[in-house]
Recover the amino acids of this structure.
């Protein structure tokens, strides 16, 4: 490790001000940032910790929308998001207890790891990302691997999840990291079905629109029997070929529909 300044503000305004420093970066759960700093892949001059900001924590439900503060840990989401069982179950399956008690939903969505679980939940739910300056529709938020619509110094303060009629998340995990080799989140609402896929694409999380159309017409596993997810642009590595991941997308989508 190397020398850096550490700031722990108590309010969002204080955090935004602290982030104006040169090479300053926000620190939430630190599950990605700290390891990259240890490996010298990231070298911020100032870390602005968000964990002391109480207004960024908590889970609440009103009017069919579940609102989760950006600083809420995975473990808290798993325990308190009972109004949205599929989301609570997803949070309970992230990493291990150490990760779940430190990692935060805001940190996960800001980092946008291509194999993370929360991006699939957010995209599949049609969520809204709330920041200190605006609200961003989830379809406009993800912009590629580790890339989002967040601007310099902008902080996620909460995420709003419309609670669907039915939903389920299925993950084929890499056993060492417990990241998704492929993960599929399916949500059925009065407006139709959304199918979000994580872990599979070189561009990060995406929607399988062909499956959405078929499942909106008939919400049953057999509705996508004749479909095949394209292997173009999917990840190929020692864990699986693009064709293998494409096959997993279809299999996990059918399992999610069955479970939902």
């Amino acid at each position: 490790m190397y020398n850096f300044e550490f700031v722990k503000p108590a309010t969002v305004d204080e955090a935004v001000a602290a982030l104006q420093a040169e090479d300053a970066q926000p620190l939430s759960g630190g599950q990605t940032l700290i390891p990259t700093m240890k490996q010298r892949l990231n070298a911020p001059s100032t870390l602005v910790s968000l964990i002391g900001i109480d207004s960024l924590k908590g889970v609440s439900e009103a009017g069919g929308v579940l609102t989760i503060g950006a600083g809420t840990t995975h473990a808290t989401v798993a325990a308190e998001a009972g109004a949205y069982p599929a989301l609570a179950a997803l949070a309970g399956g992230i990493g291990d207890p150490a990760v779940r008690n430190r990692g935060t939903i805001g940190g996960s969505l800001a980092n946008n790891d291509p194999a993370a679980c929360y991006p699939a939940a957010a995209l599949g739910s049609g969520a809204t990302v709330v920041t200190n300056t605006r609200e961003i529709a989830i379809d406009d938020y993800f912009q590629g691997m580790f890339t989002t619509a967040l601007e310099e110094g902008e902080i996620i303060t909460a995420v709003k999840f419309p609670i669907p009629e039915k939903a389920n998340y299925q993950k084929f995990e890499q056993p060492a990291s417990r990241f998704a080799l492929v993960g599929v989140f399916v949500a059925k609402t009065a407006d139709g079905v959304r199918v979000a896929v994580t872990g599979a694409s070189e561009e990060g999380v995406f929607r399988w629109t062909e499956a959405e159309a078929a499942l909106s017409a008939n919400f049953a596993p057999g509705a996508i029997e004749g479909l095949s997810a394209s292997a173009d642009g999917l990840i190929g590595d020692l864990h699986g070929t693009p064709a293998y991941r494409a096959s997993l997308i279809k299999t996990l989508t059918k399992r999610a529909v069955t479970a939902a």
